[in-house]
Amino acid sequence: MTADDRLSGPPAPEGRPRISLRPAWPGDAVLLQSWRKEASVKRFQPLAAASVAQLRAELSSHTPRDLYRSVGDKFQWLVLVDGEPAGWITLVVTNWDHGLAEVGYALSTAYQRRGVMPEAITLLLADLFLNTRLERIEARCTVDNDASQRVLERVGFAREGRLRKYFVLGGRRVDNYLYAVLREDFAPRPE
Ligand SMILES: CC(C)(COP(=O)(O)OP(=O)(O)OC[C@H]1O[C@@H](n2cnc3c(N)ncnc32)[C@H](O)[C@@H]1OP(=O)(O)O)[C@@H](O)C(=O)NCCC(=O)NCCS
Fold this sequence. Notes:
Order of helices and strands: EEHHHEEEHEHEEH
Bound molecules: coenzyme A
CATH class of the domain at 16-134: Alpha Beta
Number of strands: 8
Distance between the termini: 39 Å
Number of helices: 6
CATH topology of the domain at 16-134: Aminopeptidase
Structural class: alpha+beta
Largest sheet: 8 strands, mixed
Radius of gyration: 16 Å
Protein backbone atom coordinates (compact mmCIF):
# COMPACT_ATOMS: atom_id res chain seq x y z
CA MET A 1 0.00 0.00 0.00
CA THR A 2 1.50 3.29 -1.07
CA ALA A 3 0.25 6.84 -1.42
CA ASP A 4 -0.32 5.98 -5.11
CA ASP A 5 -3.16 3.65 -4.15
CA ARG A 6 -5.20 6.58 -2.86
CA LEU A 7 -7.94 7.92 -5.12
CA SER A 8 -8.59 11.62 -4.88
CA GLY A 9 -9.96 14.37 -7.05
CA PRO A 10 -8.83 17.95 -7.55
CA PRO A 11 -8.31 20.11 -4.45
CA ALA A 12 -11.62 20.82 -2.71
CA PRO A 13 -13.13 24.27 -3.18
CA GLU A 14 -12.78 26.69 -0.26
CA GLY A 15 -14.86 25.51 2.70
CA ARG A 16 -15.50 22.02 1.29
CA PRO A 17 -13.88 18.91 2.76
CA ARG A 18 -11.39 16.91 0.69
CA ILE A 19 -12.82 13.49 -0.16
CA SER A 20 -10.50 10.61 -1.01
CA LEU A 21 -10.45 6.81 -0.98
CA ARG A 22 -7.78 4.39 0.04
CA PRO A 23 -7.84 0.58 -0.02
CA ALA A 24 -9.03 -0.85 3.30
CA TRP A 25 -6.40 -2.88 5.12
CA PRO A 26 -6.68 -5.49 7.90
CA GLY A 27 -6.04 -2.86 10.59
CA ASP A 28 -9.35 -1.20 9.61
CA ALA A 29 -11.37 -4.15 10.93
CA VAL A 30 -12.07 -2.51 14.30
CA LEU A 31 -13.36 0.64 12.63
CA LEU A 32 -15.51 -1.29 10.18
CA GLN A 33 -17.02 -3.33 12.95
CA SER A 34 -17.93 -0.25 14.98
CA TRP A 35 -19.55 1.44 11.95
CA ARG A 36 -21.55 -1.71 11.11
CA LYS A 37 -23.16 -1.52 14.55
CA GLU A 38 -24.49 2.03 14.12
CA ALA A 39 -28.29 2.21 13.88
CA SER A 40 -28.32 4.54 10.86
CA VAL A 41 -25.86 2.31 9.00
CA LYS A 42 -27.93 -0.85 9.60
CA ARG A 43 -31.29 0.80 8.99
CA PHE A 44 -31.63 -0.07 5.30
CA GLN A 45 -29.22 -2.97 4.87
CA PRO A 46 -28.96 -6.36 6.56
CA LEU A 47 -25.39 -6.37 7.85
CA ALA A 48 -24.62 -9.75 9.37
CA ALA A 49 -22.85 -9.69 12.72
CA ALA A 50 -19.13 -10.12 12.13
CA SER A 51 -16.30 -10.29 14.64
CA VAL A 52 -13.20 -8.14 14.27
CA ALA A 53 -11.27 -11.35 13.54
CA GLN A 54 -13.65 -12.25 10.71
CA LEU A 55 -13.47 -8.79 9.20
CA ARG A 56 -9.69 -8.75 9.52
CA ALA A 57 -9.43 -12.15 7.85
CA GLU A 58 -11.63 -10.98 5.02
CA LEU A 59 -9.59 -7.81 4.52
CA SER A 60 -6.38 -9.85 4.59
CA SER A 61 -7.62 -12.03 1.76
CA HIS A 62 -7.95 -9.06 -0.62
CA THR A 63 -5.11 -7.71 -2.64
CA PRO A 64 -6.24 -4.29 -3.83
CA ARG A 65 -3.96 -4.31 -6.86
CA ASP A 66 -5.57 -7.53 -8.14
CA LEU A 67 -8.43 -5.34 -9.30
CA TYR A 68 -6.20 -3.80 -11.95
CA ARG A 69 -5.04 -7.25 -13.09
CA SER A 70 -8.65 -8.48 -13.56
CA VAL A 71 -8.42 -11.05 -10.78
CA GLY A 72 -10.11 -11.31 -7.39
CA ASP A 73 -13.72 -10.79 -6.49
CA LYS A 74 -14.01 -8.44 -3.52
CA PHE A 75 -12.37 -5.08 -2.84
CA GLN A 76 -12.91 -2.46 -0.17
CA TRP A 77 -11.95 1.18 0.26
CA LEU A 78 -12.17 3.55 3.16
CA VAL A 79 -13.79 6.90 2.43
CA LEU A 80 -11.68 9.69 3.91
CA VAL A 81 -12.95 13.19 4.66
CA ASP A 82 -10.05 15.58 5.11
CA GLY A 83 -8.00 12.44 5.72
CA GLU A 84 -10.27 11.10 8.48
CA PRO A 85 -11.98 7.69 8.02
CA ALA A 86 -15.69 8.32 7.42
CA GLY A 87 -17.10 5.17 5.83
CA TRP A 88 -16.44 2.45 3.32
CA ILE A 89 -17.20 1.24 -0.20
CA THR A 90 -17.24 -2.42 -1.21
CA LEU A 91 -16.93 -3.68 -4.77
CA VAL A 92 -17.84 -7.28 -5.58
CA VAL A 93 -16.84 -8.43 -9.04
CA THR A 94 -19.45 -10.94 -10.13
CA ASN A 95 -17.98 -11.77 -13.54
CA TRP A 96 -14.66 -10.65 -15.02
CA ASP A 97 -15.43 -12.13 -18.45
CA HIS A 98 -18.43 -9.87 -18.79
CA GLY A 99 -17.06 -6.94 -16.80
CA LEU A 100 -19.76 -7.04 -14.12
CA ALA A 101 -19.51 -5.79 -10.53
CA GLU A 102 -21.69 -4.55 -7.71
CA VAL A 103 -21.00 -1.68 -5.34
CA GLY A 104 -22.13 -1.17 -1.72
CA TYR A 105 -21.36 1.74 0.60
CA ALA A 106 -22.00 3.38 3.95
CA LEU A 107 -20.90 6.36 5.96
CA SER A 108 -20.62 6.62 9.69
CA THR A 109 -23.54 8.61 11.11
CA ALA A 110 -21.53 11.79 11.73
CA TYR A 111 -20.56 12.02 8.04
CA GLN A 112 -23.98 11.44 6.50
CA ARG A 113 -25.99 14.19 4.76
CA ARG A 114 -22.87 16.19 3.88
CA GLY A 115 -22.60 15.29 0.21
CA VAL A 116 -19.68 12.93 0.83
CA MET A 117 -20.82 9.70 -0.83
CA PRO A 118 -21.64 11.07 -4.29
CA GLU A 119 -18.11 12.42 -4.50
CA ALA A 120 -16.58 9.21 -3.17
CA ILE A 121 -18.47 7.00 -5.64
CA THR A 122 -17.61 9.32 -8.51
CA LEU A 123 -13.91 8.95 -7.65
CA LEU A 124 -14.25 5.18 -7.62
CA LEU A 125 -16.21 4.97 -10.89
CA ALA A 126 -13.67 7.18 -12.65
CA ASP A 127 -10.90 4.85 -11.53
CA LEU A 128 -12.80 1.67 -12.40
CA PHE A 129 -13.77 2.80 -15.89
CA LEU A 130 -10.32 4.21 -16.60
CA ASN A 131 -8.15 1.48 -15.14
CA THR A 132 -10.11 -1.80 -15.16
CA ARG A 133 -12.05 -3.91 -17.64
CA LEU A 134 -15.32 -3.46 -15.76
CA GLU A 135 -18.18 -2.34 -18.01
CA ARG A 136 -21.25 -2.40 -15.80
CA ILE A 137 -21.45 -1.54 -12.10
CA GLU A 138 -24.67 -2.44 -10.31
CA ALA A 139 -26.06 -1.29 -6.97
CA ARG A 140 -29.12 -2.26 -4.99
CA CYS A 141 -30.94 -0.40 -2.26
CA THR A 142 -34.22 -0.80 -0.45
CA VAL A 143 -37.12 1.12 -1.93
CA ASP A 144 -37.31 3.16 1.31
CA ASN A 145 -33.69 4.31 1.19
CA ASP A 146 -34.25 7.73 -0.38
CA ALA A 147 -30.74 9.01 0.38
CA SER A 148 -29.08 6.06 -1.35
CA GLN A 149 -31.33 6.44 -4.40
CA ARG A 150 -30.46 10.14 -4.60
CA VAL A 151 -26.76 9.34 -4.46
CA LEU A 152 -26.97 6.73 -7.21
CA GLU A 153 -29.02 8.92 -9.53
CA ARG A 154 -26.75 11.89 -8.91
CA VAL A 155 -23.63 9.98 -9.98
CA GLY A 156 -25.19 8.52 -13.13
CA PHE A 157 -26.78 5.19 -12.20
CA ALA A 158 -30.08 4.34 -13.91
CA ARG A 159 -32.85 2.54 -12.08
CA GLU A 160 -33.48 -0.67 -13.99
CA GLY A 161 -36.09 -2.47 -11.97
CA ARG A 162 -37.63 -3.54 -8.73
CA LEU A 163 -36.45 -6.71 -7.02
CA ARG A 164 -39.46 -7.92 -5.09
CA LYS A 165 -38.97 -9.14 -1.52
CA TYR A 166 -35.25 -9.18 -2.14
CA PHE A 167 -33.94 -9.57 1.41
CA VAL A 168 -34.99 -9.72 5.05
CA LEU A 169 -34.65 -6.50 7.01
CA GLY A 170 -35.95 -6.13 10.56
CA GLY A 171 -37.81 -9.41 10.30
CA ARG A 172 -39.69 -8.68 7.06
CA ARG A 173 -38.90 -9.14 3.39
CA VAL A 174 -38.35 -5.85 1.59
CA ASP A 175 -38.21 -4.83 -2.06
CA ASN A 176 -35.01 -3.37 -3.53
CA TYR A 177 -34.37 -1.24 -6.57
CA LEU A 178 -31.71 -2.40 -8.99
CA TYR A 179 -29.48 0.35 -10.39
CA ALA A 180 -26.60 0.17 -12.85
CA VAL A 181 -24.11 2.48 -14.49
CA LEU A 182 -22.36 1.57 -17.73
CA ARG A 183 -18.98 2.74 -18.91
CA GLU A 184 -20.66 4.87 -21.60
CA ASP A 185 -23.10 6.40 -19.09
CA PHE A 186 -20.23 7.61 -17.00
CA ALA A 187 -17.89 8.76 -19.73
CA PRO A 188 -19.87 9.21 -22.94
CA ARG A 189 -17.77 8.52 -26.01
CA PRO A 190 -17.71 11.20 -28.71
CA GLU A 191 -20.21 10.51 -31.58
C1 LIG B 1 -27.02 6.57 1.92
C2 LIG B 1 -25.73 7.36 2.16
C3 LIG B 1 -24.56 6.59 1.59
C4 LIG B 1 -25.87 8.70 1.45
O1 LIG B 1 -24.63 9.36 1.44
P1 LIG B 1 -24.52 10.90 1.87
O2 LIG B 1 -23.15 11.35 1.62
O3 LIG B 1 -25.07 11.00 3.24
O4 LIG B 1 -25.53 11.55 0.81
P2 LIG B 1 -25.77 13.08 0.53
O5 LIG B 1 -25.38 13.91 1.71
O6 LIG B 1 -25.15 13.42 -0.77
O7 LIG B 1 -27.34 13.12 0.37
C5 LIG B 1 -27.97 12.68 -0.82
C6 LIG B 1 -29.40 13.15 -0.81
O8 LIG B 1 -30.13 12.36 0.12
C7 LIG B 1 -30.66 13.18 1.13
N1 LIG B 1 -30.50 12.49 2.40
C8 LIG B 1 -29.35 12.20 3.01
N2 LIG B 1 -29.61 11.51 4.12
C9 LIG B 1 -30.96 11.36 4.18
C10 LIG B 1 -31.84 10.73 5.08
N3 LIG B 1 -31.38 10.08 6.16
N4 LIG B 1 -33.16 10.76 4.81
C11 LIG B 1 -33.62 11.38 3.72
N5 LIG B 1 -32.83 11.99 2.81
C12 LIG B 1 -31.51 11.99 3.07
C13 LIG B 1 -29.83 14.46 1.11
O9 LIG B 1 -30.55 15.55 1.61
C14 LIG B 1 -29.55 14.59 -0.37
O10 LIG B 1 -30.69 15.13 -1.00
P3 LIG B 1 -30.59 16.06 -2.30
O11 LIG B 1 -30.32 15.10 -3.42
O12 LIG B 1 -31.92 16.72 -2.38
O13 LIG B 1 -29.46 17.01 -2.06
C15 LIG B 1 -25.48 7.63 3.66
O14 LIG B 1 -26.54 8.37 4.17
C16 LIG B 1 -25.31 6.36 4.46
O15 LIG B 1 -24.22 5.86 4.57
N6 LIG B 1 -26.41 5.81 5.02
C17 LIG B 1 -26.35 4.60 5.84
C18 LIG B 1 -25.94 3.36 5.08
C19 LIG B 1 -26.73 3.13 3.82
O16 LIG B 1 -27.94 3.30 3.77
N7 LIG B 1 -26.00 2.73 2.78
C20 LIG B 1 -26.58 2.45 1.49
C21 LIG B 1 -27.12 1.09 1.42
S1 LIG B 1 -27.83 0.80 -0.18
